[in-house]
Here is the input.
Amino acid sequence: MTNLMVLKIAARNVFLHRMRTLVVGAILTFGAFLAVLGHSFVDGVSGGMENSTTQSITGDIQIYSENAKDKLSVFGNMDGSPTDVGHVGSFQTVEQELLKNPEIVSVVPMGTSFAQVSPGNILDHFLEKIRKSFKDPNHDLQDIESQKRRIRFLVQEIKKNLEGKFEEIGILSATEAAQAKVNLELLSRDAFWADFNDNAENKIEFMANKIAPLIFDDNMIFFNYVGTDPQMFKERFPQFEIVKGEMIPPGTRGFLFHDYFYENMVKHKVARRLDQIKKKMKDDKLTIAGSKEVQDQIKANVEQSAEVYLQLGPAETEKVSVKLNELLKSDEKDFRVLLKNYLNMADDNFQQRYDFFYKEIAPHIILYRVQIGDVLPLSAFTKGGTSTAVNIKVYGTFRFKSFENSPLAGNFSLMDLVSLRELYGFMTDERRAQNKEIEAEMGLADIGQDSIENLFAGPSDANAKPAVATAKNADSVDLNFKKRIMGSSYTQEELRNGVFLHAAIFLKDQSNMKAVIEQINETSKQNKLGIKAVSWQDAAGFIGQLTFMMKAILNIFIGISLMLAGLMIMNSLLMAAMNRKQEIGTMRAIGAHASFIYRLFFYETLFISLLFGGIGVVFGALVVMLIGKVGVPASGDVATFFFSGPRLYLHLNPMLIFVVIIVMVVIAILATQYPAWKAMKISPLQAMQKRE
Amino acid sequence: MQPISLENVQKNYYLDKVKVSALKGITLTIDAGEFTVIAGPSGSGKTTILNLIGCVDTASEGKVVVGGKETGTLSERQLTDLRLHTIGFIFQSFNLIPVLNVIDNIEFPLLLQDKLSPKERRIQVMKFIDRVGLSQYSNHRPSELSGGQRQRVAIARALVTKPQIVLADEPTANLDSVTGQNIIDLMKEINTAEKTTFLFSTHDHSIMNQARRIILLHDGRIQDGRLQETP
Here is the structure.
């Protein structure tokens, strides 16, 4: 029964000392609010990143060679360099052993690395097109004439752009600059074009070699890719879907861009900026007038208007010019000025000009630097560090449903594992066959190497001499390889029997991850599989650790605010104990034990903690639920990365509320100890102190 | 049985390492049902004697027996229990718990004792509220009562557990003379009716004269070493 009395006294004390209660309460409310909102936020980010990572690349567990030099980090090192994880011998053997574990649903072989492709600049593109037209026996002369006009126009534009700037271009020597001037002059004469059709091959080659390199642009595309069994990948990552083009046909070599990458890195610069601005205006309610970020993009489009007009031929320029003057209600003769005026968009005309772009301009420009169906010359560094290349067909683009806008999930493009092996420096059945064919043609004997790499390894002993002799030929042979399209087929057996760098493992129940990792490592030891297993967090490398770090930082903040609240509570209780000496002394004199005094203080703190902590929790939960509906817009690339998409939707975890309330009780207990101890020490003699 | 006996009790304090003797060899017995005043000038040791008998302080030397128990041999916990079950306190400054109303203040020691059911407690509390004439103020907080009313509440709180001994330290010092007289009348009435032993300190002569027995202190000693019997 005394508890009821203690509670009564505690509660009344709380209300009696309103100011103190409010100050302490405000800090507690803030702490609890921060804990609920902050943790929901970090959980949201963490969940988003987990989903982006596990559902796009890592699966639940990753396995890789136990002899790997580096720790597996599928996203590479912090500095962007790929990790060297070595390789594992046969996928089939590993898969067979692992699938004996009933917890494991599937194993998807992989290899992640990065490659580059130079799709050529606009002149390369036009020259390639006209070259193809000439080769077509049924070519349309009218079309060829139109293409020629376009190329000539482009060359004139290049000449205009470079006029007076040759000296400023540091990469050209004085001789090269002088030669370039002469070459451009030559092309501006009618004579060059008069007999073009008779000598097309040479003239095209001349322009490809001498004029196209004068367009200095950042045309190289660098990207990360995952080499895998595309069919299996599609099956095991259920959110995978084709956006443009088609899936790589089974048993065929091929490449798929991630649509996010394709839209953001491969698409025409001006078009992609317009898309981004539209998205920001729609999703984030930004305005051109009100956002520096959007203004900068508009400015960039104006400054890079050459990206548009250089791609338009004379006929298109004239056509677009008329339409643009109509749109802008102007009579501008200079197309460049007209285009700049058009691209200098404002809030009231953006949508109209955006629509105009896709209706009137986009059909005449190269909207994507790499087209679906193109055969890309991909180049990469092999495991030994030498450069290698394969030609591979782009079948389309893909995305992962529900996080299509996640830069994290959009990090990897996709290719078949056989091509990956080749880029990585392994001999494939196809290449081995081609090698034999070429060797036969050139009268060489099979050198018995299992890797192209070894051809360049250099002599290590006297017996290596034939290899050195072969190497020179192999270099020239390699050029032939590059011209071949590696879009041909491979057998399932070849795919499964070869090496892999790492593999994604999917579990029946993700909560068993730790146990299964141990089981896999044990299986590997027993069967000498040479693999080790790591969690998806570990495999995600620094990205996997980001949420851990975010949680740590958040907890430090919450910890500081709660510690502050605890100290404030302690201080105020201590003052209360001192101010209430006679009251406490009286209680002790009347017959209250020291424990009664302790409870009095504890209940007082508990009351404050639960009341204000509760208010903080409720307030935090309401905000979380609100954000759960509306979502926090990601402003900028960094936020998009952390949110794993354009918006972060929070979810309320009931366990979190429970934990926060427990933490509040713990704070109450801790903050009570010292003041309560001091109060318990108050002698009943204090009751006898006289007050006049 | 004598509820209170002191045998050659000394109480020393140290003020800056200087020993101050508040009581210098007090020997005293008080019989059950006595209504006794401890009188003397300020600093004579009145409050110190009450503190020792009230078990809120212990003697430096000698023996203090309260309710048949020698207080010097008891633990802190046992002393608390002795106070709870044997002694009722009335303080000069009333010392009510400010956040509790009249009923709760009076009920407080009963709750600590935890002997009665809520219903029995309620009956007992209401009986004593009625006895001190505060029925219409039962839900008032101490701050809403006059000094005399507060002291009545304090008397009810001291008596509600029916203690053997009631100790009152200058219970009328903060009251006007009429109210002080009313309080003394009330204490006397209860003393007569309940046979409770009353021991209180005062330096008010008019009140002193109403006690059945006066113990006169001077400089930590009982003056002339004898008791003064009043008519």
